[in-house]
Design a protein that fits this description.
12 helices; 13% strand
């Protein structure tokens, strides 16, 4: 009977949170700030207080507490190392969302940190209170519910065809991955381990003064990859029982058919990669073939550029940006050093390679602009350069 009551309390708590999120998505814009600063934290606080008052504090021993904390520490180390490496490669940029004053820091702690911590306390409690045979199912349900609770961008998301894939990569993928990893850790790990991972991956955006100077898409893919790495560290080192079960499973793996979802996920990943390379998204890769930008990136580098239309160029292109443009049948990736105006009164762009002594001989017209370079990765495009050299002499 007690278990049934606990399940009802948990379900009621989740329904209240889902209803609050629906209200947030529907309220007028002028009420958003008040909701985030006052009502959302108070709703979480009231639910936590009521739930612990009704169901009691969980004092059960967590068998894997120490090892889960150790593995969470490795996850933090992985995150910090990746931030430094990305900063060295792409440079650091000022984080416009970071707390720049004491008052703003206090607001961030109340609005973001408090809600994040209380939501993880609730996640762990619901999963731990579930019977062992149902904890994994509970974790899956909570992953989906929490993903919805954290999609505040649904208020203003552009779901036109051209933006859907960007939305999936920039927003859905990292949020889904983070909640899946946290729910998995909550099944056998400790609350503190869950809080550490959530703090690092969710709150770094609001408290780190600088972040790697990469685009939103690159940052989302980085976070997703790091979370997957953290999950892998946790999964393969959690406890000896799981290691034994995995070794036994491997012996029988070759006699079993692969589940359909493995092929679906693999096909989806291949489609996403091929679409990205083919330029189906707002961001696309370009392999650098010459040394004209050697001081910044050299031959064999892969630059990631954001597509810019003729209409967007006037407001989007700034002095110092690296343009990807096409003149005739040749594409260039050079830096904007000056603005000028043509006979029709349109703004044109004087460009120059960082490794070139003189500016380009002709200005870049708005119709010639393809995109603006947002990030680059050195060396990984060398196979393409070698193949091109082989066939073209």
């Amino acid at each position: 009977m007690k278990k049934n009551k606990n399940d009802m309390f948990h379900l009621a708590a989740l329904l209240i949170l889902v209803a609050a999120q629906v209200i947030y998505l529907l309220i007028p814009s002028h009420m958003v700030v008040l909701f985030n600063r006052l009502w959302r934290p108070l709703i979480y606080l009231a639910i936590i207080a009521a739930l612990y008052g009704l169901t009691g504090w969980d004092r059960r021993y967590v068998k894997n507490r120490k090892i889960s904390l150790t593995l969470a520490g490795f996850g933090v180390l992985l995150f910090g190392s990746a931030i430094l490496a990305a900063g060295v490669l792409f440079g650091f940029g000022e984080n416009s969302m970071a707390a720049g004053s004491f008052g703003l820091a206090v607001e961030h702690i109340w609005v973001f940190a408090a809600v994040a911590c209380m939501s993880e306390v609730l996640r762990v409690k619901i999963i731990k209170d579930a019977p062992k045979e149902y904890r994994e199912i509970t974790a899956i349900v909570l992953t989906l519910v929490y993903m919805f609770l954290q999609l505040d961008t649904l208020r203003s998301v552009d779901l036109s065809y051209a933006k859907v894939l960007d939305f999936l990569i920039v927003t859905i993928l990292p949020v889904l991955t983070m909640n899946a990893v946290l729910s998995y850790i909550a099944v056998d790990g400790s609350l503190l381990a869950v809080l550490i991972i959530r703090a690092v991956y969710s709150l770094s955006t609001f408290f780190l003064p600088v972040l790697p100077a990469v685009s939103e898409a690159v940052w989302a893919v980085m976070r997703t990859a790091l979370l997957v790495g953290t999950f892998a560290i946790y999964f393969f080192n959690m406890d000896e029982d799981k290691k034994i079960r995995r070794r036994q499973a491997k012996r029988h793996l070759k006699y079993q058919k692969k589940p359909l979802d493995v092929y679906i996920i693999t096909a989806a990943l291949v489609i996403i990669v091929v679409s990205f390379v083919a330029g189906a998204f707002s961001y696309y890769p370009v392999v650098v073939l010459t040394d004209s930008m050697e001081d910044t990136f050299g031959p064999g580098s892969v630059v990631v550029s954001e597509k810019i239309s003729r209409e967007e160029a006037f407001g989007a292109v700034k002095e110092g940006d690296i343009l990807h443009f096409k003149r005739g049948n040749v594409e260039y990736t050079h830096r904007v050093i000056e603005f000028r105006y043509n006979a029709d009164g349109e703004r044109t762009y004087i460009t120059q390679g960082d490794n070139s002594p003189n500016p380009d001989s002709q200005p870049v017209e708005p119709d010639q602009i393809i995109g603006i370079t947002r990030a680059f990765v050195p060396y990984i495009g060398y196979p393409f350069v070698w193949i091109r050299t082989l066939f073209n002499g």
